[in-house]
Amino acid sequence: MCDNASWFSRSITSMLLQFSCVRYLYPSVAHQRTWAQLVTGLSLHPKVSAQHKQVLAEHAANVPTPADLAGKVQYCHVQPVFNDASQMKVQFSITNDIYNVGIALLSALASIGGVTKFCGPPRSRSERHAAEALKLLG
């Protein structure tokens, strides 16, 4: 799938995981590449169970390039948590075709110390401003 999983080699002691149900019509190649790096990195991680490694490795073997994930990986983003660079936030949205891989990915992240949180996407700037205005009004 993707041989470049070097970013994953740094020590991640705790990880915040958020499964987001965001739908995007035209996912960029960056989302597919991020998914490929996550799957590849976690399939090699020593703390991940053999069962989850097998699911992730089979998925990686069946997808020759990240571009082949078009239509399956709608959104995948990894970023440091605000005010704590030791934690990472992982958000992804996938189709039902690779649902079992998503479950294996969630379990693998949990096995290395991640916390799973299922929720919607963060509020937009205008939603935050509207909420502040409503608070001021009473």
Strand line-up in the sheet with most strands? 2-3-1-4
> How many alpha or pi helices?
4
> What is the N-to-C order of secondary-structure elements (H for helix, E for strand)?
EHHEEHEH
Low-pLDDT segments: 1-27
Provide the descriptors you would attach to this structure in a database record.
40% helix, disordered N terminus, 4 strands, 138 residues
Short description:
This protein has 138 residues and is α/β, with parallel strands linked by helices.
Explain the overall architecture.
This protein is α/β, with parallel strands linked by helices. It has four helices and four strands, in the order βααββαβα. The chain has helices spanning 29-44, 50-62, 99-111, 125-137; strands at residues 15-20, 73-81, 84-94, 114-119. Strands 2-3-1-4 form a four-stranded mixed sheet. Helix 1 (29-44) packs antiparallel against helix 2 and helix 2 (50-62) crosses helix 3 (99-111). The longest helix is centred in the N-terminal third of the chain and has 16 residues, at 29-44. The radius of gyration is 16 Å and the shape is elongated. Mean pLDDT is 79; it is low at 1-27.
